[in-house]
Design goal:
heterodimer; A: mainly alpha; 3 helices; flat; B: mainly alpha; Cytochrome C Oxidase, Chain A; two-stranded antiparallel ribbon; 20 helices; 4 strands; globular; binds protoporphyrin IX containing FE; binds copper (II) ion
Chain lengths: 110, 629
């Protein structure tokens, strides 16, 4: 791994670009962190306020879904290059599982 | 094989195959064991047809008949068709993408041995108190009522071999994503590689539901659980759902690689680029997705309600669209080509009308109200044999002829191949075409006999006669294999002369490192492009000649699978009070399994290198070295 330690010399423009990109990324992470906290607050408030379970359960599930997507994209770097296949398989899997559960819930247990 | 192999003794060769991690040898193992299971399943089919040859026959008893149909279906799907296709994938796919092996050679071997031991376990049921007898679909109420240990053999055997298949599927996915040669973009992959890819994705997503179902079944039968026991609050319909959520994608796991083989054949022997390559690829992916949305068409008569039936009926009919796209693309590939009617091509041409017939009956069954008439009648039997035999088995037979020279370095006789084809093809239509009418005349499937006054005698006799013709075809194929092997006339890189993809650019069989130098891919049908440009070497290289890193063989996959095999006997008899040793056997088996996994994790195995000098030496001899050192 010796050759990895050699300093790469970057041009000024490159340097600036990277810096801007990193701070943009940081901003995204902070924003999504704030959103997540907010979503969690909504969930807790709903339960505390004592709404009907038929309202609470689907909304919490929805919020959970949003959280998962935020996690994947802003913290686990799913949007980075080279993750296309991973994302494709993940969403295919989620899709298949969703269809299955939906069908079982509606035609077996309903 | 090379002089190196001929000098080896029988013992050394057996050891070599037990420990091999080379995808080409694992392919041969899959082909041979899948072939043997195919013969066993075929024998069972013959016994079924003898029993049904005439009214009121008592050749097989009712109970034995049930075991026979169950084992026939289970063997043919899980132990014959799928493994043989996995064999072709192993033999061909890494070569097509210009890789030296699959991504995880060790897992590849593990996958094979798990399948093998699972299959042996399942078939041992014949000698150990009776085979499973609840049909290959093993519906829970029936299965839980079955008194022998047969169902336990089914559940455990399929669990083991299912793990093997799942491992194989994941391995192929990683291989195709990560190990394509430079320049081999997704849209330059040969169609057989594409269908391998999608079929592997289906394996990945479809086998877990089956495993869950089998686990429930194992716990219900062997450890006193009540997942499917209605009196105890369980739900017997859940098994049907789990089975078909797996089962329908499973039929696509079988047919997609078959489509892949035929796509290769049409292009090679029409000597034309595949018509509508892009459409074929997207149709394949689309079929993969739709495959997960239609399972309830097997359950129209269960009473899911009109809404569910309507939704699943429509979803099912939609699948016919991408399938139709494929058919037209193949026809347009042949259109205007300079066609050579070799044995594989004849199979491919025969496949089109046969498979279309199966698709048409499929769409008929997808009409839910009509299915109330057709369900569980011989019409269904006719449908799925038209798609499976007319699609998958014809593809397997075509693939055996097409890839035999690449796998074994000799050419099967074309003349005997034609004899096999005609016997098989005529026998196939004779057996199954008439079964449509038996179904419409009201003959239910899975009955062991029928009365003389029901008007089914003649058609059943004709059907049995057809089965005999198919059997003759298969026997001729075996004779062909023996004669070809004995004659041992070696062939060159491109024995069909019109090969288009990378596997035809290297020796037959390829050296154990496949490509001395990784090829550079400059377009679809790589080898064809190079041939057309007069490149004598058949490839452009992406790297200079250098050392090659190869994995060592290992006996551990074999031992691990054996451990699971032993443990299964413990689980099988767990509830028999007369057998106090079951727990011990279960523990010993699992100890073997986990012990060998431990050895594998603790002992570093870094493989070995073939040096540049050795490579050059080998290339001078024609690059035909076989086996590792
Ligand atoms: C155009 C495409 C297809 C359609 C619309 C279709 C539709 C159907 C339907 C509705 C059934 C259930 C009938 C019943 O039990 O009442 C069925 C059964 C079956 N199909 Fe298909 N099918 C198609 C293609 C295939 C293919 C390609 C295969 C396999 C390679 C296949 C294999 C089977 C099998 C094995 C069964 C019977 C399972 C059993 O009950 O044992 N089908 N098909
Ligand atoms: Cu189906």
């Amino acid at each position: 791994m010796a050759h990895d330690t050699t300093e790469k010399i970057r041009s000024h423009a490159e340097h600036d670009f990277l810096k801007r990109k990193r701070s943009a990324e940081m901003r995204h992470q902070l924003t999504s962190f704030a959103i997540m906290i907010f979503l969690t607050l909504i969930a807790f408030t709903m339960v505390a306020a004592g709404f009907s379970t038929y309202l609470i359960v689907p909304i919490i599930l929805l919020l959970a879904g949003v959280q998962v997507v935020l996690q994947l994209y802003h913290f686990m770097h799913l949007s980075n290059k080279g993750h296309g296949m991973v994302a494709f398989f993940m969403f295919s899997g989620i899709f298949v599982a969703f269809i299955t559960v939906l069908a079982l819930v509606t035609i077996v247990w309903w | 094989m090379s002089s190196l192999a001929q000098k080896k003794g029988v013992g050394a060769i057996i050891w070599d195959y037990l420990t091999t991690v080379d995808h080409k040898k694992i392919a041969i193992l899959y082909l041979i064991s899948g072939g043997i299971f195919f013969l066993i399943g075929g024998l069972e089919a013959m016994l079924i047809r003898i029993q049904l040859m005439k009214a009121g026959n008592d050749f097989l008893s009712a109970g034995l008949y049930n075991e026979m149909i169950t084992m026939h279906g289970t063997t043919m799907i899980f132990l014959a068709a799928m493994p043989i296709l996995l064999g072709f994938m192993n033999a061909v796919m890494p070569l097509q993408i210009g890789a030296r092996d699959v991504a995880f050679p060790f897992l590849n071997s593990l996958g094979f041995w798990l399948f093998f031991f699972g299959g042996i376990f399942l078939n041992l049921s014949w000698f150990m108190g009776g085979a499973p007898d609840a049909g290959w679909t093993n519906y829970a109420s029936l299965a839980l009522a079955s008194e022998s240990h047969g169902i336990d053999f089914y559940a455990l055997g399929l669990t083991i071999s299912g793990f093997g298949t799942l491992i194989g599927g994941i391995n192929f996915l990683v291989t195709i994503i990560n190990m394509r040669a430079p320049g081999m973009t997704y849209m330059r992959m040969p169609l057989f590689t594409w269908t391998t890819f999608v079929a592997s994705a289906l394996i990945l997503l479809a086998f877990p539901p089956l495993t869950v179902g089998l686990f429930f079944m194992i716990f219900d039968r062997m450890f006193g659980a009540n997942f499917f026991v209605v009196e105890m609050g369980g739900n017997t319909i859940i098994w049907e759902h789990l089975f078909w959520i797996f089962g329908h994608p499973e039929v696509y796991i079988l047919i997609l690689p078959a489509f892949g083989i035929f796509s290769e054949i049409f292009a090679i022997f029409s000597r034309k680029r595949l018509f509508g390559y892009t459409a074929l690829v997207f149709a394949t992916i689309l079929i993969g997705f739709y495959g997960f949305m239609v399972w309830a068409h097997h359950m129209f008569t269960v009473g899911l309600g009109p809404t569910a039936n309507a939704v699943f009926a429509l979803a099912t009919m939609i699948i016919a669209v991408p399938t139709g796209i494929k058919i037209f693309n193949w026809l347009l590939t042949i259109w205007g080509g300079s066609i050579k009617f070799t044995v594989p091509m004849v199979y491919a041409v025969a496949f089109i009308p046969s498979f279309v017939a199966g698709g048409v009956t499929g769409v008929m069954q997808a009409i839910a109200p009509l299915d109330y008439q057709l369900h569980d009648s011989y019409f269904i039997v006719a449908h799925f044999h038209y798609v499976i035999v007319g699609g998958v088995v014809l593809a397997i037979l075509a693939g055996v002829h097409l890839y035999w020279p690449k796998m074994f370095g000799t050419m099967l006789s074309e003349k005997l191949g034609m004899v096999t084809f005609w016997f098989f093809f005529i026998g196939f239509h004779l057996t199954f075409f008439i079964q449509h009418f038996l179904g419409l005349l009201g003959m239910p499937r899975r009955v062991y006999t029928f009365g003389a006054d029901q008007g089914w005698d003649l058609f059943n006799a004709i059907s049995s006669a057809g089965a005999l013709l198919m059997a003759i075809g298969v026997i001729v194929l075996l004779v062909n294999v023996v004669i070809t092997t004995v004659k041992n006339v070696r062939v060159g890189n491109d024995p069909w002369e019109d090969g288009r993809t990378l596997e035809w650019a290297i020796p037959s069989p390829p050296p154990f490192y496949n490509f001395a130098q990784t090829p550079l891919v400059r377009g679809l049908d790589t080898y064809w492009i190079e041939k057309m440009e007069g490149n004598k070497k058949g490839m452009v290289y992406a790297e200079p000649l250098g050392d090659i890193h190869m994995p060592n063989g290992s006996i551990i996959p074999f031992i691990m699978s054996f451990g699971m095999f032993v443990a299964s006997f413990g689980a099988l008899y767990f509830q028999d009070d007369s057998k106090p040793w079951t727990l011990a056997v279960l523990i010993i088996g699992l100890a073997i399994l986990f012990g060998s996994m431990l050895v594998r994790s603790l002992k570093d195995d870094l493989g070995f290198h073939i040096t540049k000098e050795e490579l050059m030496e080998d290339l001078k001899k024609g690059g035909n070295t076989d086996g590792s050192k």
